[in-house]
Amino acid sequence: MVAVTYLSAQSPLFSPENRFLFGKHLLKTGHAEKSREEFRSLSGTTLFDSKTKLLIDLCGIEAGDTAIEFLSGANPLLCYAKGKKDFETNGRFDFVPGIASHEGGTLPVSYLKLKILSDIKSGSIAKEDLEKVYLFGETGSRFLLENLEKRVDPDEKSPLFAGILSAIFPGAGRIYTGDYGEAVASMVLTGIFGYLAVSNFIDGYPRSGIIFSSIALFFNAGNIYGSVLSAKTYNREAKERTDKEFLDFYYREKPLPAPLEIVEDQ
Amino acid sequence: MVLPLIRSLQTNRQLLMASYGTVILFFFLSFPVFSQAWQPATVDYTEEIPVKKKYYEITGDVSEVAFKLLVNSYRLLISEPDGDNCPFAPSCSRFFIESLQKTNVIEAVLMASDRLIRDTSFGNKYEHYHTDKFGKLIDPPSRYLDLD
Amino acid sequence: MAFADSLFGEGEFYNAFIEAERLSFFDTLKTHAHESYLLRGKCLKETGQFKAARKFFEDAALSTTDKGLKFQAEIGILKILILERRFRQFDERSAKLEQVFPEKSREFAYWKGWRHIFAGEWDEAKEHLIKAANADDLIALCDSAEEKSYSLTLGMIMSALLPGSGQVYAGEYINPVITLAWVAFGSWLVADAIKAQRYFDAFIEANYVLLRFYRGNLSYTYDLIERRNKEIKNDILRFLQNNYKGPKP
Fold first, then answer.
1. What is the pLDDT of residue A169?
2. I want to staple C45 with a disulfide (CB 3.0 to 4.6 A). Which of A117, A138, C53, C110 is the partner?
3. Residues in chain C where the model's pLDDT stays below 50
């Protein structure tokens, strides 16, 4: 094993230039830790310059490290990389002022776009930033504005109204929230046992009448309670749908460049 | 007295819960599959069999024993002969017990009634629920708590 | 490549994967493409990442014109499909491969035998293993499993005719008695309601008591026999995994 390792290390594949190239490839394909090892191995060579150190720090951010190894945490590209990573992991990031701009190069524009995306996702965006949504192109800006509108003015159902409807007529509240299957089930169960209760009392079977009344009451109470829950669930699912549409857009359109792309452009 | 008793009953059964935080799950799924620390996987040839309904051990004080006997009797006399026709996980009786542990008697009864209505409902249930590895619709009580 | 292979041999699968990836990255003429894909596929398989492993095995098969090497890569894919229990995909793929590699029919028969063993289909497994070479041990295991297994059809017919009898056939004794009692009670309720000309009550009692427990009886019988047969299958699979010395998925 040692001999094989030694002989391999002499191979041209392990030359500093090739390690640098392979390191970038590993970073692109999601092997941040291994990428960092490749860049670190360049220590003591001429290739271990500021660009390599920047790449090592980028690898650290991708790998989820909190500490920056070489450059300052205020470095604009590292701020962007960390912000993008945090946004993709948690849905928000700590905005650092002074970097974002709608002109001046890929990095400032990308950082501004990141801020706009994060603000839209949280449902609250400043007017001057909203005006810059054109940076996402015609389709992108239209989608983002619609998504923002859904967050600010969501399509909600009133739990109280649903409960009142179901109290008046079993299942009506569920029809209001769009749960038609459950609406029919509520009507049928409450109706059947209600009918059985009444018919048994009329026919002189009070014991059966009491049993069926209790069951009817049980299902009617569940019908009202369930309608309220159904409205609340509808509201939660509407919010989740909005979030999912946002994510689909983000991963389909890829509006933000990877930090490595920005490094290679510079 | 009943509620602390019920809360004290713990089972080892882990429920597969569909994450309503599809946000986070979606983000992780978007990254390349490869993890940074690969460990050899001991592949298991055997197929997982759904866990059979367990009966509680009859231990504890009088009220605990009484409750456990009641639940065991329900399982033996009603739940098992009724077969496994509940499309949900957990089953309706399990749902009721977990609701009791998390809320109060009245709310648990209302939740159980709603669950029975949903169990009987027509139409495509798969629109609103995720399924576990045995094909059951995942519907734990926690799905209906903290909705405000 | 030797370095990557040695890492694989040492059990350092991630490092082996990276070194194979390195070779592939610089191999612009694709001279080592097959070996690199194959090794990466093996690393992923060893770490349980079956879906990704299959992709690399497929690339390995496509990146060589040597029929022997192609065949080995395809067998790698079939083994993963067995482990993943993707039986339909296995059947489709092996049917296509048999036309490409007609001379390897005995080897295909062997892996088809394994596929059916994983599915608990003992008759079909035996049918294929008989055509394969050196599979006598597996055939004997299939025979013993077949003897111990319960017939689902027989159990269901018994339960349909006499509620609970299918469960007794499968070795359950308490639940059938309770089931029979419920069905009898339901029948009495319905008969009583009909006698009193309360037809709607009879309909509800038939649906919620009699038929519910009758259907429950059938469902319980089905689940019970399936469970028993799965337990038998798992015993066989556990034995094969830990003790069988021949080629395994």
1. 95
2. C53
3. none
Residue type, C159: S
Chains that touch C (3 or more CB pairs under 8 A): A, B
**Whether residues B142 and B89 fall in one domain:** yes
Is residue A136 within 8 A of residue A113, CB to CB? The reply is yes
- Are B147 and A219 inside 8 Å of each other by CB? no
The 10s digit of each residue's pLDDT in C219-228 is 999 999 999 9
**Residues C3-39 pLDDT 10s:** 899 999 998 999 999 999 999 999 988 889 999 999 9
pLDDT tens digits, residue range B41-80? 778 899 988 877 777 788 888 887 888 888 888 888 988 8
CB pair distance less than 8 Å for B120 and A188: yes
Query: What is the total count of domains within chain A?
Result: 3
Nearest residue to B125 (alpha-carbon basis) of B112, B111, B135, B113: B135
Distance of alpha carbon A151 from alpha carbon C192, whole angstroms? 60
Instruction: Please give the residue range of the domain that contains residue A47.
Output: 1-71
Is-above-0.80 flag for pTM? no
Residue B59 and residue B125 in one domain = no
Long-range contacts of residues B102-107, Cβ cutoff 8 Å, at least 24 apart = B102/B141, B102/B142, B102/B145, B103/B141, B103/B145, B104/B3, B105/B2, B105/B3
Residue B140 placed within a domain: yes
**Does the structure's ipTM exceed the value 0.90?**
no
Q: B24 and chain A: CB distance < 8 Å anywhere?
A: yes
Residues A147 and A171 in one domain: no
- For domain C1-84, give the fold: 1.25.40
Best of B113, B115, B138, B146 to mutate (most A CBs within 10 Å, chain A): B113
Chain C CB within 8 Å of residue A21 CB: yes
- Do residues A234 and A178 share a domain? yes
CA of A239 vs chain C CAs: smallest distance (Å): 32
Partner-chain contact B36 A226, CB within 8 Å: no
Provide the shortest C-alpha distance from residue A14 to chain C (in Å).
9
